[in-house]
TrEMBL record:
Annotated protein name in UniProt: LysM peptidoglycan-binding domain-containing protein
Location of the region described as Disordered in the Swiss-Prot/TrEMBL record: 131-151
Record domain LysM: where: 32-75, 79-122, 161-205
Organism, scientific name: Heliomicrobium undosum
Annotated GO MF terms: lytic endotransglycosylase activity
Lineage, top ranks: Bacteria, Bacillati, Bacillota, Clostridia, Eubacteriales
UniProt biased composition (Pro residues): 134-146
Keywords: Signal
CDD domains, A to Z: LysM
Length: 359
């Protein structure tokens, strides 16, 4: 009997020392559940996955140590998330370190459509009473009717006469060249008298330039973390005008930054408005300026637009007291680089724009 006691005591000490010396390397990878194999016991499963027998019994509502081959035993408790306004499946997946596909499967979703207040399982595991989704709340009373904002009619084709702006051209010289009223030339190209044409840009002379009107003023009451896909050339360049002050919302963190539109005809060039806004940018890019972009949403005049923001200040600067020299690139759907650029860089922006649209 003494020999047996000494053997058991030595075995326990050896197991403890083995765990201390081997550390994490001896532990199996964390998994949400375990399928019982032939001849396995609760003690073996608990040891393999570094969880207590009592915890396994609690998670699986076992009243004894009896288990059977093929039985599915949960090793962790499920995690749930209540959807917040403006959240997408991509945002939620990034928050919990999982994937959109995994969340869809856990909740039996056939699409990416979710709504505020919806409770989603985000980490697989046992559902105990404390983590079970609460009953759906009673429907809220219908809100008061809001004013109907109609979408302008899209323009699908260029007019019969167009022109590619030459460097040195002005609205006045172009209007005179073609014998059209200056106000009409500006109106056909969705411009104000204070705007000017960029060299190399195609413009309309005797009719309206194409517009999709994917967004229009008053659509949204406040900045969001999901934006609408807006083609830069068919809408974006006419919405984001030189010297506009706009709000940029980072999709992943929700951080909001005030910026000034500096210009740009293939994409938007922006500058942070103040030193506070520059500090926010530095935090977003982890205090290390980089060309690698982030998914953001641009908000202007009640319109939330999916976009991508790079973190590298460069070239011209028109806001001298904001704590950084240079401007930053903001891409919308189908934005292009100024001149030659690495296709990979443009592709990174394109991917982030899709994320900003919740896709």
């Amino acid at each position: 009997m003494k020999h047996l006691q000494r053997f058991l005591k030595t075995g326990v000490i050896a197991l403890v020392l083995s765990t201390l010396f081997l550390g994490a390397g001896a532990a199996s990878a964390a998994v949400p559940w375990h399928i019982v194999q032939a001849n396995e016991s609760l003690w073996q499963i608990a040891r393999t996955h570094e969880v207590t027998i009592e915890r396994i019994k609690t998670l699986n509502r076992l009243t004894s140590d009896t288990i059977y081959t093929g039985q599915k035993l949960y090793l962790q408790e499920a995690k749930y998330h209540t959807v917040q306004p403006d959240e997408s499946l991509w945002i939620i997946s990034q928050t919990y370190g999982t994937s959109v596909d995994a969340i869809r499967q856990l909740n039996g979703l056939n699409s990416d459509n979710i709504y505020p207040g919806q409770k989603l399982k985000v980490i697989d595991g046992a559902t105990l009473s404390s983590s079970a989704p609460a009953p759906a709340p009673a429907p809220a009373p219908a809100p008061s009717p809001s004013p109907v904002i109609s979408r302008p009619t899209p323009v699908t084709n260029w007019p019969s006469i167009t022109y590619v702006v030459q460097y040195g051209d002005t609205a006045s010289t172009i209007a005179k060249k073609f014998g059209v009223p200056l106000n009409d030339l500006l109106r056909y190209n969705y411009m104000e008298p204070t705007d000017w044409f960029d060299g190399g840009r195609k413009i309309a002379i005797n009719g309206y330039a194409p517009r999709q009107y994917a967004v229009y003023p008053g659509m949204d009451a406040a900045p969001k973390r999901i934006g609408h896909l807006v083609d830069w050339f068919l809408d974006g360049q006419y919405i984001l005008k030189r010297n506009d002050v706009i709000t940029i919302t980072d999709v992943l963190t929700g951080e909001r930054i005030q910026v000034k539109m500096m210009g740009g005809y293939n994409h938007s060039d922006i500058e942070p408005l103040t030193t506070t806004d520059t500090d926010k940018l530095r935090r977003l890019f982890q205090w290390n300026w980089t060309w690698t972009p982030r998914a953001v949403v641009v908000y202007k005049d009640g319109m939330n637009i999916a976009a991508s923001l790079s973190g590298m200040p460069h070239s011209f600067d028109t806001t001298p007291n904001n704590g950084v020299s240079g401007h930053f690139d903001v891409y919308l759907l189908n934005s292009e680089a100024h001149g030659w650029a690495d296709p990979g860089y443009v592709g990174q922006h394109a991917a982030q724009v899709q994320k900003a649209a919740g896709r």
